[in-house]
Amino acid sequence: MKFLLVFDFDHTIIDENSDTWIVKCAPEKKLPNGLRNSYRPGHWTEYMGRVFVYLGDNGIKEEEMKRTMTTIPFTAGMVDLLGFIGEKKQLFDCIIVSDSNTVFIDWILKAADLHNVFDEVFTNPAAFSSTGYLTVQNFHAHHCAKCPKNLCKRKVLKEFLDKQSERGVSYTQIVYIGDGGNDLCPVMFLKKDDIAMPRQGYTLEKKISQLAQDLSPVECSVLVWSSATEIMSYLKVLIKE
């Protein structure tokens, strides 16, 4: 029996939003107002597609983007936590479910030599076109009214667990580590033996406490963290180390 660790990426593994960090590559490190104001709620991926076109139109190349993205700081204690998980892979399966994209996550994890910690990464597919522009697509289609159009993290988690179950893999406990509003949907899918670990002061923590006030609390346990050192302490208790 193993434990499943599910990580969000932006503001969880890294201490920033990878999609807004890329704006550092733009002329004067900012986007024109018309582009900035073109975002519609629930349609972030399409918005980022327009941002990447703008960067491409301004001659921003893959190498420069990569250099910029690999300067993003990791959240406090996160590199140590991921190193610890990497040493205990016989006990932990570890996945990322993120609204970032495959190119950014790949660059950042490989630069820090952390990509081997994760068994799978579920995020919006991205690639450079023949003309050198970064393009991004929606991860999947879904029917969840609570989630952004491109990604329902509950659906991803459920499909992953079903697939693992077909392979004969079941988990003693799921530990879900995240920060954002779109992490609430998968957290509400967790069972009473599982644990949600929302980052302190971020949207997920606020939404979970709002549910508790409305007397419809989540079924799983909740443990708030501000440094990944606290997550590591919990995992050590879990594996009785």
UniProtKB/TrEMBL annotation:
Gene3D superfamilies in alphabetical order: HAD superfamily/HAD-like
MF-aspect GO terms: metal ion binding; phosphatase activity
Superkingdom, taxonomy of origin: Eukaryota
InterPro entries (alphabetical): HAD-like_sf (IPR036412), HAD_hydro_PyrdxlP_Pase-like (IPR006384), HAD_sf (IPR023214), Pase_PHOSPHO-typ (IPR016965)
Binding site for Mg(2+): 8, 10, 179
List of residues binding substrate: 19, 99
Co-factor(s): Mg(2+)
Active-site residues, as the UniProt record annotates them: 8, 10
UniProt keywords, alphabetically: Hydrolase, Magnesium, Metal-binding
Pfam families: Put_Phosphatase (PF06888)
PANTHER family assigned: PHOSPHATASE, ORPHAN 1, 2 (PTHR20889), PYRIDOXAL PHOSPHATE PHOSPHATASE PHOSPHO2 (PTHR20889:SF1)
Family membership: Belongs to the HAD-like hydrolase superfamily. PHOSPHO family.
Protein known as: Pyridoxal phosphate phosphatase PHOSPHO2
Organism: Eudyptula minor (Little blue penguin)
Lineage, uppermost ranks: Eukaryota, Metazoa, Chordata, Craniata, Vertebrata
Gene from which this protein is expressed: PHOSPHO2
